[in-house]
Write a structure and sequence with these properties.
Keywords: Membrane, Transmembrane, Transmembrane helix
Number of strands: 2
Strand content: under 5%
Mean pLDDT: 89
Radius of gyration: 22 Å
Transmembrane segments: 20-39, 59-83, 132-151, 163-182, 203-223, 229-249, 269-289
Distance between the termini: 75 Å
Largest sheet: 2 strands, antiparallel
Oligomer: single chain
Helix content: over 70%
Structural class: mainly alpha
Length: 347
């Protein structure tokens, strides 16, 4: 084979721009959230109105969980980048350039041009029932947290809460959730007489996106490696933004009830979402048992589920996202005494 002239290797500016733009967007969004946290933290320090000593401790707890979540999930996300690059380099497309000295950016551009990272990652985590058992849970966490994000964002008057959801989509849900929890801990306690505490939108505005997202969570593994996979996958990724964008801009289009009534409504709503997520997870568990075999001991099922965490970097990233989401949600409930009203900003 004739040696390839390095000058013949194209520079894929579009692919490079998308990739580095994605990384730059993450940094920008993170800095915006950090600015909100910094301003509110300074206000708590200046006014010395942390309410109690535990409030400050909660801030450091969720700051630690924020660091832990990005450390665990993005260790494997970066591993996924290397895994994907190695796969491309050993493919026919990559082998063409194996013996050619090329600048690093040129190689990265060639790799990205032939690679669909987002699609490949989600197809990997949807490949079989044991992987879906982990990846399916992140949909439940995202849907429930997205609803909580809208409620708490209004009540604590946190600006641009949709940014936290976008960070969750770009980085990990656990990272964004803990970042949001940390923001709440440095925010003033909501005024339960304020319209933002009492207000809620017509049920359909929140119910429809939640129901469609839950149904779509069941469809994602079915369409893995099919031509419509990306369309099916993107539906819940878009719908979860809806609760974050709802607010009492025009109070005539919503409902104003006593704060306790609104909290009870949302408590019931979140409980139904949790129940639906548990039911879906039960279905995924049934698929795992059927795939492994109904005659195998439960210890073997558990072993295979644990092994699924490390079969692929994408699986590791999503699985650890699920694990830390679980720890974070439990921590949020624990520090609020497992009282739904306090978890949602009430007394």
């Amino acid at each position: 084979m004739e040696a390839l002239n390095p000058l013949q290797a194209p520079i894929h500016y579009k692919s490079l721009s998308i990739f580095f733009g994605y990384l730059g967007l993450i940094i920008l969004l993170f800095l915006i959230c950090c600015h909100t946290i910094y301003v509110r933290y300074q206000a708590r320090q200046k006014n010395n109105d942390w309410e109690n000593g535990w409030r400050r401790a909660q801030f450091f707890l969720f700051t630690f969980l924020t660091a832990l979540s990005i450390g665990m999930t993005w260790f494997y996300m970066i591993s996924l980048f290397f895994y994907s690059y190695d796969s491309w380099a050993n493919s026919p497309d990559g082998l063409v350039y194996s013996n050619v000295e090329l600048p690093l950016l040129v190689r990265i551009g060639l790799w990205l041009k032939k690679t669909y990272l987002f699609q490949e990652a989600w197809e990997a985590v949807s490949e079989n029932p044991t992987r879906v058992w982990w990846s399916g849970q992140i949909f439940g966490w995202t849907i429930g947290w997205g609803l909580f994000l809208g409620i708490a964002g209004r009540r604590y008057r946190i600006p641009r809460v949709w940014i936290y959801m976008l960070i969750g989509q770009c980085v990990s849900i656990a990272f964004a959730a803990n970042l949001f929890f940390a923001t709440i801990t440095v925010s003033q306690r909501p005024n339960e007489k304020d319209i933002s505490f009492k207000w809620y939108p017509p049920l359909l505005y929140e119910l429809l996106p939640v129901v469609l997202s839950l149904v779509d969570a069941l469809a994602v593994p079915i369409f893995a490696y099919e031509k419509d996979f990306m369309f099916v996958l993107l539906i819940p990724h878009i719908l979860v933004f809806v609760p974050c964008l709802l607010g009492p801009i025009d109070s005539s289009k919503g409902n104003k009830e006593p704060g306790l009534t609104a909290t009870q409504r949302y408590t019931a709503f979140l409980q139904w979402v949790a129940a639906a997520s548990v039911a879906i997870q039960g279905y995924f568990t049934l698929l795992v048992v059927q795939d492994i075999g109904t005659d195998v001991p439960y210890s073997e099922v558990i072993r295979q589920l644990l092994d699924a965490i490390y079969v692929h970097p994408a699986c590791s990233s999503v699985s650890w996202d699920v694990i830390i989401c679980t720890v974070s949600a439990f921590s949020w409930a624990l520090v609020h005494g497992f009282k739904p009203s306090r978890m949602l900003g009430g007394q």
